[in-house]
Amino acid sequence: MKRKIEILAPAKNLYQGMAAVNAGADAVYMGAHQFGARSNATNSVEDVAEMVKYAHLFKAKVFVVINTILYDNELEACRKLIYELYDIGVDALIIQDMAIMEMDLPPIVIHASTQANNRDANHVKFLADAGMKRVVLARELNLDQIQEIHKATDVELEFFVAGALCVSFSGNCYMSVANGERSANRGSCAQNCRLPYRLEDGTGKTLIENSHLLSIKDLDLSDQLPNLIEAGISSFKIEGRLKDIVYVKNNTSFLRKKLDAFLEENADRFEKASSGRTFYNFEPEMDRSFNRGYTDYFLNKRKEKIGSWESPKSKGQYIGKVLEIKANGYIIENYEKLNNGDGLYFQNEAGEADGAQINIIFNNIVIPNTFKPLAIGTEIYRNSDAEFNKMVEKENSAVRKIGLKLEFTETETGFQLLAIDEDGHQSVGTIEVAKELAKSQDSVIPNIKKNLAKTGNTPFIVDELEVEFSENWFLPISKVNEIRREVLERLVDIRVNEYHREEHKLEKTTHPYPVEKLDFMYNVSNKMARTFYQRHGVTEIEKAFELQWDPGKSRVMTTKYCVKYELGKCARYQRQTMGEKLVEPLTLKHGEVEYKLKFNCKPCEMEIWEKDAELEYEDEDEQLGYIAKW
């Protein structure tokens, strides 16, 4: 049996969700009006219902995120919402709070959010055995780890392949709570990781004055799709429920083309997860929409620097270097790629991220609205592509059509049109009319075919067309057009009504959880989640950070990202070139806010603690076994 491979696109709202489907998405994920981890990307149940109807026309799926942690007084409202979502045909829920697994639910499919600590085979297998039909893996995993998980369980695996990266292990960042009592796990991330910080060593010496030291590049694994499929991934997820429509359409289209090329070459083993094909009126390029520069993160293990320290804003597409300054403008390599109105990104003479908008390009000179002095050799990026944006924003920039075969034949009392779509759905219509021969000797069939093929704004395209008459019957073209419209309108309803939604009724399980003690990073915030873990053998459960925060002394982040590595001071990977060790503790400062950094070299992780935390530091050489402990 062939494995279905899916592109999963974000949908901030109904309009962007429909655009993602048109651009080739096999599924979209979106928030309802409550309990989604993006409080600025909510949708009414009515809009979700419209999204479901439109997606199902193309056999694409709709997943709703209910991925915040829940408090006790929210459990019943959450349960009622789930029933509403089930009733309108939603395909699955994406959750992190295990309270939902304890609820009396309809038979709706459940996916485990990446916020549910999905980082090892034992944990993923537990979730699968508990009834999860899909697990969204942690972004930090490498190909070997993904393969190990796939070997341990046959649960569907989903993986982020494009978009912004959370610097923390997903679900394990508490900086927003500690700095303003906003919770990322409750949909209100304040993005403290994108702020500028000063880095000091243990002597108080400033190592970096003012830089976005926790901001990292965006993810691009588009060249890794074949490797990920072979490792066991079935769904490729695009981050971005807060991004604009150009980003969604461009990224979805780019990945669709990449994946289609692979599927065509491997049609014996894999297949597309939805119906139809998309026709593009633009050439998708990921770097022409929002991005901070790209990284493959840790998929191929730790090998490159991934920080985006100069700015957390979009860097965009690399154009070329400044060759010369003339009058109030610049002569730039590859200037012909630029257009009036484009936004430029560069580092100014102070080494700071800066930008300008192009006013006009005149005689090869790029003239900005506001001239800023730049050194020769400055690298220029375009982070707002005016022509490209205008082109992609058009409704017809990506049009999706379902293949169709039409058979137009005569009956005893008139004529019949049969439509059979690429999935085998059928719609039939008849014309009851007294048949009469055409007055002209010319065949009527070419003209009938021409009009039957006009599918216009319907979601169909005619791939095969047969007209079989025993005589050269006369038939008004208005009748041909009318029956075509009726048959195709009926086929739309048939496809939606005959859509098969997978269902799964949860049953309470008792198999042991991989660990017996849960700290606050498991985000247990209500009695039902506590009951779930206890039934599976967990003996000690800490409350979620939001319920027990100890101001000034808490660990607010755990991450695979490492400031030492970015500085070239990693004792594991850069030992030969690192020079003198840094004097710890390293401290990040932003205004009055201060954090201590702790480096756990054995698991290759970094922790961020509030300034009053009392920490014990172990020399990195001792951690790695280079020198003996006394």
Automatic annotation (TrEMBL):
Residue span(s) of domain Peptidase U32 collagenase: 380-495
Superkingdom field: Bacteria
Protein's name according to its UniProt entry: U32 family peptidase
